[in-house]
Amino acid sequence: MTNQPLGGNDMPRFAGPNTFMRLPSAVNAEGLDVAFVGVPMDIGASWRSGTRFGPKAIRAESAMLRPYNMGTGAAPFDSLNCADIGDVAINTFDLKDSVRRISDAFDEIVGFGAVPMTMGGDHTLTLPILRAIAGKHGPVGLIHIDAHADINDHMFGEQIAHGTPFRRAYEEGLIDRKRVWQVGLRGTGYTAEDFNEARGWGFHVVQAEDLWHKSLTPLAGHIREQIGNGPVYITYDIDSLDPAYAPGTGTPEIAGLTTPQAVELIRGLWGVNVVGCDLVEVSPPYDTSGNTALTGANLLYEMLCILPGVVRR
Ligand code: MN
Ligand code: MN
Fold first, then answer.
1. What integer pLDDT is reported at residue 104 of this predicted model?
2. Residue 152 CA, ligand 2 centroid: distance in Å
3. What's the rounded Cα separation, in Å, for the pair 285 and 220?
4. Distance from Cα 76 to the centre of ligand 1, integer Å
5. Terminal CA-CA length for the chain
6. Most buried of 21, 129, 251, 306, CB within 10 angstroms?
7. Residue ranges with strand state E in the chain
8. CATH level 2 (architecture), domain 20-312
9. 148 alpha carbon, closest ligand
10. In this structure, how many other beta carbons lie within 10 angstroms of the beta carbon of residue 119?
């Protein structure tokens, strides 16, 4: 019998444990297929802070999620043993030490054979996760949904920050550069070429303007075909959504994805060999309605629903 989320008929949804979907908590990922884990960090953020409170808020909003996906029939808890293993103890006074602590924590998670599903936290955290993922799987395909490319060479002279992880991942060979998609990029840049450098590396870059007013199901189908059977990591920056849908984030950009588009993209990736996912950049102090954390919790659930081994009814 796999772990099940605590039901609303057993304990009111406004009560009970503050774990993701009120799943059982676990001290580590041993014996799990899927480990939900928080990385409560904002010391890599360049503009608004507050993402250190992201995991707590995502867990709180996830309390309303029920186990079955009525849109796709996915029944993730029928076959996958899931638990919430709590937060990584980052060092909030030292970003570089925090990055080391995150990679150590994820080395352990993937060492137990669990798929990490991460609640952020600013986007810096994806670099140490990819180090751990590549340590197990080798270079992985990457589906990166974001308003920003996050391929700066440095920020204020620092090589590690929330705007640099995918340049570092490319340089370190953590990702398979021909199997990388960046989706939803937009806004203003430092040069007119900001999105083209990664195209030169082999990345597939899909700007938001090319997605306005369209279903994302065809794009997801194209990615699914092209990315092949090898391992893939999905990193979902909540600022890929329009600020009308997800205002509680550190670096908002107008004219972004809609919530239905965000769901279409994930659902369309069913069948991809996903070995890890994160949902980053939820900043509760700017999320006055809680809608951003609610959306983040649902997108994380949708990613759970496309993992290998999930059955559909
Ligand atoms: Mn980002
Ligand atoms: Mn972003």
1. 98
2. 12
3. 32
4. 27
5. 18
6. 129
7. 34-39, 74-75, 82-87, 115-120, 140-145, 175-185, 204-207, 232-237, 274-280, 311-312
8. 3-Layer(aba) Sandwich (3.40)
9. 2
10. 29
Q: Alpha-carbon dihedral of residues 152, 143, 260, 214, nearest 10 degrees?
A: 80
Q: What is the DSSP string of 167-180?
A: HHHHHTT-EEEEEE
Dihedral of CA atoms 275, 102, 220, 212 in degrees, nearest 10, equals 170
Residue type, 132: A
What integer is the mean pLDDT of 99-124?
98
With a cut of 90, say whether residue 313 has pLDDT above it. no
Residue 292 has pLDDT above 90, yes or no: yes
Render pLDDT for 27-76 as a digit per residue (tens, 0 to 9).
999 999 999 999 999 999 999 999 999 999 999 999 999 999 999 999 99
Q: What is the DSSP letter of 190?
A: S
Q: Residue 253 CA: which ligand is closest?
A: 2
Domain ranges of the chain: 20-312
Give Cα 132 to chain centroid, integer Å.
15
Give the three-state DSSP class for 273.
coil
Ligand closest to Cα of 147 equals 2
